[in-house]
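Before the break, one more example. Copy the sequence into your notebook; we will annotate it together after we see the structure.
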Amino acid sequence: MSVRVRRVYDPPESGDGVRVLVDRLWPRGLAKDAARVDEWPKALTPSNELRRWYHAGEGSYEEFARRYEAELADPEAAELLDRVRESAAAGPVTLLTAVKEPEHSHAAVLARLLG
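Here is what the structure looks like once it is written out:
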């Protein structure tokens, strides 16, 4: 399985495969045609409450990851996660995010769960 995380602002590459936007909000200043997003499963993203909690600096990344994984147990999110997992089994998948540090984000949690 090939899953990688990239910033959505980086230019698309030929090896990206299926490009999945994993942010709840559309990235600022980015035209939809330039992003070349294939899928945007919003129910797979962290809840607004969890996102705000983490960005407020109230907890550690480890606690954020634990809470996010708990949210992913929701049936709708679990189904979407399975769909992305199936895509990754068939070919490369690139998880796209606008965050400045993807390695400390929900996208890294998803990549770990999919890998």
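The chain is about 40% helix and 10% strand. Helices lie at 32-35, 48-55, 61-71, 75-90, 106-114. Try to locate both features in your own notes.
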